[in-house]
């Protein structure tokens, strides 16, 4: 009887320990607080698939030369309008004056010599002036006679140039004899010498 009683105590003690062990492991979990209702998800727009990229041909866009820019000429200026609404006509360009023909080289050289000739202002007596005028008249008459004789002949280019030079000397001598008889006599002598050469060449 004592043995059964002891066995009952052992079993009771074992059950009591197991019950305590289960109670020790029991955890009271607090229920979660009521949360705000979840907002409905925003309506998402459907994703549009991207078009497929073309296959690379090995040439970059920067390597391909683009078309050259076209140069656009500036618009012409609009004509001005007059007070009555009429379009003013554009001004016509001024006429270009024709350049004068160059004088023969011989004439320019003779003119330079005359300009550079010193004006000594030598006072001549009446007799000396008479002698110089007579000499000038003689040589100018000789030159004019030859020029008149060859005027009707078919002269070469060189002889026509020589005749023009003689006429220039005759004109210069006539102008200078009014102020400088000595210079006029020298030019008249040149005209006479050239006239003699022209007369021989024109035969």
Question: Which structural class fits the helix and strand makeup?
Answer: mainly alpha
- From the N-terminal CA to the C-terminal CA, the straight-line distance is 197 Å
Write the H/E string, N to C: HHHHH
Q: Look at the structure and give the mean pLDDT.
A: 70
Helix residue percentage: 40-55%
Low-confidence stretches: 35-40, 116-120
**Given the C-alpha coordinates, what overall shape results?**
rod-shaped
Q: What is the C-alpha radius of gyration, as a whole number of Å?
A: 66 Å
Give the percentage of residues in beta strands.
under 5%
Number of strand segments: 0
Distinct helical segment count: 5
Largest sheet: none
Description:
By secondary structure, the protein is mostly helical. The protein has a domain at about 125-200. The protein has helices at about 1-25, 105-115, 125-150, 155-175, 180-200. It is rod-shaped, with a radius of gyration of 66 Å. The relative contact order is 0.08.
């Amino acid at each position: 009887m004592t043995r059964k009683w002891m066995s009952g105590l052992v079993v009771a003690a074992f059950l009591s320990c197991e019950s305590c062990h289960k109670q020790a492991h029991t955890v009271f979990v607090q229920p979660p607080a009521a949360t705000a209702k979840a907002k409905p998800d925003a309506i998402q727009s459907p994703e549009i698939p991207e078009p497929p990229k073309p296959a690379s041909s090995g040439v970059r866009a920067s390597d391909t030369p683009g078309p050259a820019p076209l140069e656009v000429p500036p618009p012409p200026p609009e004509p001005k309008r007059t007070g009555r609404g009429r379009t003013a006509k554009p001004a016509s360009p001024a006429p270009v004056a024709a350049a004068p023909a160059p004088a023969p080289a011989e004439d320019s050289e003779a003119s330079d010599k005359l300009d550079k000739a010193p004006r000594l202002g030598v006072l001549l007596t009446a007799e000396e002036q008479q002698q110089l005028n007579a000499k000038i008249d003689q040589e100018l008459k000789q030159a004019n006679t030859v020029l008149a004789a060859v005027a009707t002949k078919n002269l070469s280019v060189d002889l026509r140039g020589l005749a023009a030079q003689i006429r220039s000397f005759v004109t210069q001598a006539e102008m200078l004899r009014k102020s400088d008889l000595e210079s006029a006599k020298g030019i008249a002598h040149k005209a006479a010498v050239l006239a003699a050469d022209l007369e021989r060449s024109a035969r």
